[in-house]
Amino acid sequence: MAEPSKAAARPHRHALMIPRMAIIALVVIVLVIAGAYLGLSGGAARIGTSTAVTLTGSPSYFSIGSGVYSLSLARAGSGGTAYIYVNRLPIFVNPLLNVTLVQDNTTKVNAGSSFASIGFMLESAGNSSMVVRITPLDPNLQIAPDAGRIRVVSVLLAANNGGASTTSYITTTAVTTTIAATTTIAQTNTTHANIMTALKRYNVYGLMQNYSILYANTSQCTPIAYHNAYTLHYSYQPMVPNDYQNVSTVTPYALYTNTTNIGKGNYSFAYSTKTIDSVYNNTHVVVMKINVSTSRVYNTVFSGIFQGQNYTSLLIGYSKAQGIGGPCGVVVP
Q1: What are the pLDDT digits (tens) for 208-249?
Q2: I need a surface site. Which of 5, 25, 30, 223 has the fewest CB within 10 A?
Q3: Which residues contact 186 (CB under 8 A, 6 or more apart)?
Q4: Average pLDDT for the chain
Q5: pLDDT band with cut points at 50, 70 and 90 for residue 177
Q6: What residues are paired with 72 via a beta bridge?
Q7: What is the C-alpha end-to-end distance of the chain, expressed in Å?
Q8: At 206, is the secondary structure helix, strand, or coil?
Q9: Dihedral angle at the C-alpha atoms of 18, 22, 25, 29, nearest 10 degrees?
């Protein structure tokens, strides 16, 4: 088992450059979608109990629990498996998920929460449609999601233009994680808005959102893929303690967030890890303290697998992970 101080516990990262015109285009699209969201959420079919629905390649909208979701067929598989796209609305701030469904077996998904909030079970599938049973799940039950069946695709931007759907995929340095986004407090809209304003101004938040994407995809990193990625990067084979068995246990397979009222108009926004190794499981990696009256982050503490790190070192590590590429990029120490 790797020790907390081993290089194996250190993550990796990367910065993305976005052309000015792309940003302008993104803003225009977001404004269009913001209006469309209100109409879509109002017309979504409500699912309160386990319900079988038919999905096609065109998005269908459902109100499940506290959220509204766009669901569509991604592709039919074989051997009783199929794939659907799941996107919580508003789709311009939530990531697009590719979820694997298995016949007569429920896939538990946590779009927009730390714990599973929806169950999907494949009942039948054809080339152009499938029947899926949707079951609302209470996140308060703390049911673990089936992370191995959930893959983050990208941030999906879609606008409905006179009945014709136009879609584009844009990945930025501030994409939103599928695993995160729960709070432990009852916030007013103003408080929540001020917290998000502070976070979006802060470079650590954008970087951590991108880390969430990398870690969510590590379920696709196999021993063979890790061996190949490591060997290609270092030009020699991994050995203990940098072998897959040790490194994979301390590398997060998910990040989740909690927002907590710490008094006097101040809140903490913490990223925590889900890891196989109990030493790092459910431990903070970054805690940002925010003053809501100024909408500013005034203190940041790195701990756990990020102990001793700072924004610059995390950005270098992210760049390295992006350079290695694939689901093992953030696993290779």
Answers
A1: 988 998 998 888 899 999 999 999 999 999 998 899 999 999
A2: 5
A3: none
A4: 78
A5: very low
A6: 85
A7: 15
A8: helix
A9: -50
pLDDT surpasses 50 at 167: no
State how far the Cα of 303 lies from the Cα of 235, in Å rounded to an integer. 31
- Looking at residue 226, the DSSP 8-state letter turns out to be H
The helix (H) or strand (E) run that includes residue 56 is strand 51-56
Mean of pLDDT values over 65-70: 87
311-324: per-residue pLDDT in tens?
Answer: 999 999 999 998 99
Amino acid, single-letter form, for residue 199: L
Q: With CA atoms as reference, report the closest residue to 96 among 69, 119, 76, 126.
A: 69
Q: What is the CB neighbour count within 10 angstroms for residue 92? A: 22
3-state secondary structure 139-201: HHHCCCCCHHHEEEEEEEEEEEECCEEEEEECCCCCCCCCCCCCCCCCCCHHHHHHHHHHHHH
Rounded-to-integer distance, Cα 244 and Cα 265, Å: 44
Distance CA 247, CA 219 (A): 13
How far is it, in rounded angstroms, from Cα 23 to Cα 286?
28
Q: Answer for the pair 212, 177: CB distance below 8 angstroms, yes or no.
A: yes
The strand order across the sheet containing 95-102 reads 45-47, 60-64, 67-76, 81-88, 95-102, 150-161, 164-169
- List, as one string, the DSSP characters of 231-296: HHHHSS---TTSSHHHHHHHS-SEEEEEEEEEETTEEEEEEEEE-SSTTTTT-EEEEEEEETTTTE
Vertex 39, ends 34 and 45: CA angle to 5°?
125
Model confidence at 284, in pLDDT bands (50, 70, 90)?
Answer: very high
